[in-house]
Amino acid sequence: MGQINHHLSDQLLIGYAAGALPEAFNLVVATHISLCDECRARLGSFETVGGCLLDSGPAASVASDALVNTLKLIAEGPKEPPKVSRNRAGNVFPTPLHDYAGSDLSAVRWRPMGGGVRQARLATSGAATARLLYIPGGTHIPDHGHRGTEMTLVLQGAFRDETDRFGRGDIEIADQQMQHTPVAEPGAACICLAATDAPLKFNSLIPRIAQPFLRI
Amino acid sequence: MRGRPKPGAYDTTMTQTIPDTDWAAHLQRVHTHRDQNAFAALFAHFAPRVKGFLIRSGASEPLAEECTQEVMATVWHKAHLFDGSRAGVSTWIFTIARNKRIDALRKQRRPEPEEVTWGPEEEPDQTDVLALQQDTRKLAIALAQLPEKQRILIERAYFADLSHSEIAEETGLPLGTIKSRIRLALERLRHAMQ
Q1: Distance from CA of B69 to the nearest CA of A (A)
Q2: What are the pLDDT digits (tens) for B76-98?
Q3: Is residue B112 scored above 70 in pLDDT?
Q4: Which of A39, A183, B69, B134 is most open to solvent, judged by the fewest CB atoms within 10 Å of its CB?
Q5: CATH number of the B145-194 domain
Q6: Any idea where the domains of chain A sit in the sequence?
Q7: So what's the ipTM on this one?
Q8: CATH top-level class of A1-216
Q9: CB pair distance less than 8 Å for B47 and A67
Q10: DSSP string of chain A, one letter each residue
């Protein structure tokens, strides 16, 4: 695994620790953490904050038969079968993606977006949306600004924009102010997991007209 | 049933500030001996807190009661997965309660990070367990000592299930103020942990 230089913000990690993010953002956070030990450790700290708040927080009295009922529940056995989340070495997809996109790249059903760029929308509930992007080496992603927050996590290859280079595991977090023109590095296609809580706003006319149809 | 503070098995530096039962040892007894008394002690301490958390997150009383019992049943079933070198018991139970909230209140799936494998069934190092317990205690003290304005925002972010912009709407505070107060709070916590 190469060096990861672009990490999750405190805000996103708190949101994930607290369970306050939309599902699409949770997916990107969980996928990044699968690749990034530093953010996994930071998440641990933010979850500890949650544990301390739980411990010192307000208590609500439980029903008088709550313990008896819980022991009955326990006797019924676990509800969900234990998850086995072993991954094949070298898989481009960390395990959190498997439930959404299939177990590896070959399972993805891409749709063309023009210029060799392809995308696959992933089903998540809530206001934000998630998708996979396939950008051939050397190709521009159409110039776009953002109305909400957009997170882009590189799974394969790399892209560059005005700010820096983003390789596998790196995450770019863009907000309203940001205008950027990412270009995939020459060579292997760049594959990204992206999530946004608002539709992208493209700056040239054609993509803007196409946007509602392409469901970007 | 509420356990009086007593020094834990590996704990030699009890602080007087926060009474602390050795919940990890209780959980261990649940795991190895299916010990119902140990579970009852955990239940007496944590079930009301989990229920309080769920009610503050917007659950109705009956739903919070039902979810609390499910959370505590999960604590029993997953006791073997608890690793005291990676999280304290309150943190571990917090994550179970949080996941239950996402599942029951928001009806969403919760993507979890890939498991880290630490080698074949390694026993957690007791030095790590102790260090983590001390850090957790330090963090609890630092949280309790935050200026009220900052602490309230941190609590809201965790308990009320709100994004920063929703907190802004609810409190009428500008988003920038909320972000900077949360940032200040985190700086204080980091400073306290150094």
Answers
A1: 5
A2: 999 999 988 889 999 999 999 99
A3: yes
A4: B134
A5: 1.10.10.10
A6: 1-216
A7: 0.86
A8: mainly beta
A9: yes
A10: ---------HHHHHHHHHT-S-HHHHHHHHHHHHH-HHHHHHHHHHHHHHHHHHHHS---PPPTTHHHHHHHHHHT--SSPPP-----TT-SS-GGGHHHH-SSGGG---EEEETTEEEEEE---SS-EEEEEEE-TTPBPPPEE-SS-EEEEEEES-EE-SS-EE-TT-EEEE-TT-EE--EEPSSSPEEEEEEESS--EESSHHHHHHHHHHT-
